[in-house]
Design a protein that fits this description.
There is one protein chain. This protein has strands at about 1-5, 10, 15-20, 30-35, 45-50, 55-60, 65-70, 75-80, 90-100, 110, 115-120. With about 120 residues, the chain is an all-beta fold. The strands form 2 sheets. Strands 2, 4, 5, 6, 9, 10 and 11 form a 7-stranded mixed sheet that branches. A 4-stranded antiparallel sheet has the order 1-3-8-7, with no helix packed on it. A hairpin with a 6-residue loop joins strand 4 (about 30-35) and strand 5. The protein starts with a strand and ends with a strand.
Length: about 120
């Protein structure tokens, strides 16, 4: 089970930190990804972290503004959102996958958590 939390309302240029707590999976062996979705759109990859705590991958529009991190001892993966923009407004959710690299495609992720809403006001 994955549960994302930390969403809320933030002004453009502000910061927000999302976290995802995992249970029931071997967290340290999973690639963890953050995705976001707006109404009527497909889920979009945002950022991810390999299971060996070694590699990260970011979607182009968030690179340099968002930072993904994970704590295998606490079974958590976090997404630090800085310099937020109105276009970052979405429901953010975390997902877990088995593999050796960060996947940007949703089909590789077998575990999904309920999302948390982030609203960035202009």
């Amino acid at each position: 089970q994955l549960q994302a939390f930390g969403g809320g309302l933030v002004q453009a240029g502000g910061s927000l930190r999302l976290s995802c707590l995992a249970s029931g999976i071997t967290f340290s062996r999973n690639v963890m990804g953050w995705f976001r979705q707006t109404p009527g759109e497909e889920r979009e990859f945002v950022a991810g972290f390999t299971s060996d705590v070694g590699s990260t991958l970011y979607e182009d529009s968030v690179r340099g503004r968002f930072t993904v991190s994970r704590d295998n001892a606490k079974n958590t993966v976090s997404l630090q959102m800085n310099s937020s923009k109105p276009e970052d407004t979405a429901v953010y959710c975390c997902a877990a996958a088995y593999g050796s690299r960060v996947f940007t495609e949703t089909r590789y992720y077998g575990f999904w958590g309920r999302g948390t809403l982030v609203t960035v006001s202009s």
